[in-house]
Write a structure and sequence with these properties.
Blueprint lengths: L2 H11 L1 H7 L4 H5 L6 H25 L2 H21 L8 H6 L5 H29 L3 H14 L3 H8 L3 H28 L9
Protein name: Transcription antitermination protein
């Protein structure tokens, strides 16, 4: 598989989890059911700050070819955290998972493929939250943040530096990381007595 096919394979493998991570329950789980502006902002800043920290550490530890993508993605996440402009809180389950990932190929999958796929779903609901709050300025800000955070350019470039077997390792790690984000979401909702599965 080339880089594009690797990303498409991850999308196919994680379709159900990503659909559920894009539901209106995702902010209930992420904020412990405290749907207030400051809490939503803190949750978003925490994700970006935690991602920036993980990617920055990986950049320092990676070989030169992939280090550039980690470094660029870390700087972009830090810039998004600055734009959100609130203090970060305690890391969530997805960021905790990233901190356990080792090996360049697995880190490419988790940090440069899974993280944007998860961010796309999360920020969909952040935008919706601010639309519902009639805060069009913040909704516009998070539309832009969603567009940037969900971009897969760094991941596709990094995959291009890997061998085919390493791309398979990256795909498996990306699928696992999306699964970790979903498991955190589902377990949090279940602890609240809510069903993470959509009601049909």
């Amino acid at each position: 598989m080339d880089a594009g096919a690797t990303i498409n394979a991850v999308r196919d493998q994680t379709e159900t989890e990503r659909d559920r991570l894009g539901s209106d329950k995702v902010l209930i789980a992420a904020t412990d059911a405290t749907l207030e502006t400051e809490v939503v902002l803190t949750t978003a800043a925490t994700r970006e700050s935690g991602l920036a920290d993980a990617l920055g550490q990986w950049a320092a530890e990676a070989d030169s070819d992939v280090a550039t993508q980690f470094e660029g993605a870390a700087e972009a996440a830090a810039e998004r955290a600055d734009r959100i402009d609130v203090d970060a809180g305690d890391p969530d389950g997805f960021i905790d998972h990233l901190e356990t990932v080792s090996g360049t190929a697995r880190r490419v999958g988790a940090g440069l493929i899974a993280a944007p796929l998860v961010a796309d779903r999360f920020y969909l609901q952040v935008v919706s939250f601010f639309i519902n709050e009639a805060d069009e300025q913040r909704a516009d800000t998070f539309r832009e943040i969603r567009r940037e955070a969900s971009a897969l350019d760094d991941g596709e470039t990094a995959l291009g530096h890997l061998s085919e077997s390493e791309r398979e390792t990256a795909a498996a790690a990306a699928t696992e990381a999306v699964g970790a984000a979903y498991d955190d979401y589902a377990e949090t909702l279940e602890a609240m007595g809510l069903d993470p599965k959509p009601v049909c």
